[in-house]
Amino acid sequence: MARPAVVFKEADPHAPPRSSNKHVSVDPEGNTLIDLEFIEEPLGVTAEQGHGYLRVEFGDALGPDKRYKVVRKLGWGMNASVWMAFDEKEKRYVAIKALKGYSTDLFKRNVTWELPALQRVASIPPPPGVESTHWPQLLDHFIQPGRDRDGEHLCLVTDVLGGDVKSLQIEVAKKKGLPLPLAKRILLHTLRGLAHMHHCNIVHTDLKHDNIMFDAGSADIAVLIEADPPRCHPPEESWECTVQAAVSQPLPLPSFSEAMTRTYVVSDFGCAQPTTLHTFDEITTCGLRAPEVILQGPWDEKVDIWAFGCLIFEFITGSALFEMKPYPEEGLDETTCHLWQMLCWTQDRITREQVEASKLGTQYFDLPDNPDDPFCNLKGRPRIYNSPFWALLKRYNVLEEADVFATAKFMQRSGVIPNCRCLRKGGNEPGSGQHRPSLNSSTLDTDPS
Q1: Which of 77, 139, 166, 288 could tie 209 with a disulfide, CB 3.0–4.6 Å?
Q2: Cα gap 222→218, rounded to integer Å
Q3: 302-317 helix and 401-414 helix, angle to the nearest 10 degrees
Q4: Rounded to an integer, what distance in angstroms lies between the CA atom of residue 343 and that of residue 187?
Q5: Does 176 show up as a binding residue in the annotation?
């Protein structure tokens, strides 16, 4: 039987009705190919085929004791769908992240570490000055049987969250930089969450806008559900059946003033790993990857701090710190150009030791001929421009003069500027935290709550 080539398609309310989402063709070798286009998650595509999303109806009761009644779909991602449910025991609304069958199998084989990571951050007291509200609070977990060949679903029960920073930046800032007071609040809360994770010897590895969320505030969820009842998309064809996906209906986004009262949470531990024991090394969104990740060298919790430093820039300017594209004028492909930009912005050097310790080190850097020379040059020897970081921030014209230098200084302490993180030999041991930004930094000293 042919394996389908699955194409994801986000819901488009302006698109004309489709005659079918299933397209059958034959390749030059005579093999039958089935292309499936889904409005949301690819329901009915099996766990063996890399999916196996939870299929559930509104009103269904989940859990061994049928404790959780499904009332709404909040969203979905590459590894799970997230549902709002009513906890019949505690008489409250909760969120249930239901891993797809394929991802649950990875958990069972100890490839992924989300549940142990959530349990660890809950069991270890946070460091002084860090509240327990900046990471998900695991309330319960269970295995939910799946339909047909969907596999089983690891379900993680947490508090309902209000949405993610990516959506907030689109709503509040219209894809531009966030207002500085809000950016500072989000960054401070994010740093507190990371501090506790690293205190627990956990590396998030996937820090980005989408994975920083905020609480639901004082929203009356029952009233919201009544005003905006749960809905389903029209039926669509799947691999061997017809399916009907629920419409993703996250909670309404807050205004700027409301956002300034919310608590921000480092969420989605699906890619979390122990500091020193890694099950996979291809981590972090490309534009936020630390150099040691790109070069496939040894890494630890400092990769989160590098990503955090990049996010400082993105939150404030609304633009990515690094342009992910080739630079043909200098003869650089996309990855080499990424490394080149790092060297230009940081004015740092990559050492012989780092290159020799990395699988891809010599693919991108030339080892020096002189054995006494500790530094390596990027292949092609592009010119390394002296580009002060404050000058880049100033170019966007979104900060006052004093804030430009304060922000550049804080990014330096976050590791995106030299002498601060692990670009140089002699970085800290995992868990030491000596290069981490201070939680009391005046740069982020906004509402401490």
Answers
A1: 166
A2: 12
A3: 160
A4: 25
A5: no
- Token look-up 């069991």 returns 123
CA distances from 392 to 127, 145, 184, 322, 398 (A): 34, 52, 19, 11, 11
Q: Residue 35: what residue type? A: D
Confidence at 319, pLDDT banded by 50, 70, 90: very high
- According to DSSP, residue 314 is labeled H
- Tokens representing 304 are 């989160």
> How far apart are the C-alpha atoms of 434 and 428, rounded to whole Å?
7
Give the list of residues 6+ apart from residue 413 with CB closer than 8 angstroms, or none: 420, 435, 437, 438, 441
Cα 442 to chain centroid distance, Å, stands at: 27
Nearest CA to 155 out of 254, 242, 85, 215 is that of: 85
- Domain extents for the chain? 43-159+217-250, 169-210+254-449
Report the pLDDT value the prediction gives residue 420, as an integer from 0 to 100.
42
Cβ contact 40:12 at 8 Å: no
CATH superfamily, region 43-159+217-250: Phosphorylase Kinase; domain 1 (3.30.200.20)
**Tokens representing residue 212 in the block:** 């920083």
Determine the average pLDDT of the residues in 374-383: 94
Burial of 326 per CB tally in 10 Å (0-12, 13-18, 19+)? middle
pLDDT at 8 > cutoff 70:
no
Quick one: average pLDDT of 121-134?
86
- Residue 442's pLDDT is 40
Would you place residue 447 in the very low, low, confident or very high pLDDT band (cuts 50, 70, 90)? very low
Pairing mode of beta strands 80-87, 92-99 = antiparallel
Compute the mean pLDDT over every residue in the chain, rounded to the nearest whole number: 87
- Give 312-360 as a DSSP string: HHHHHHSS-SS--S-BGGGTB-HHHHHHHHHHHHH---EEHHHHHTSTT
Q: Which CATH class is domain 169-210+254-449?
A: mainly alpha
Where does 124-250 show beta strands of DSSP type E? 140-144, 153-158, 161-164, 202-203, 212-215, 236-237, 242-243
Structure tokens at 39: 């409005």
| Residue 151 · residue 239 · CB < 8 Å | no
Find the DSSP H helices in 228-270.
256-259
Q: What angle do CA 192, 198, 203 make, to 5 degrees?
A: 110
| Cβ–Cβ < 8 Å for 316, 165 | no
Handedness of CA 280, 286, 289, 291 (dihedral sign): positive
Whether 354 contacts 297, CB under 8 Å:
yes
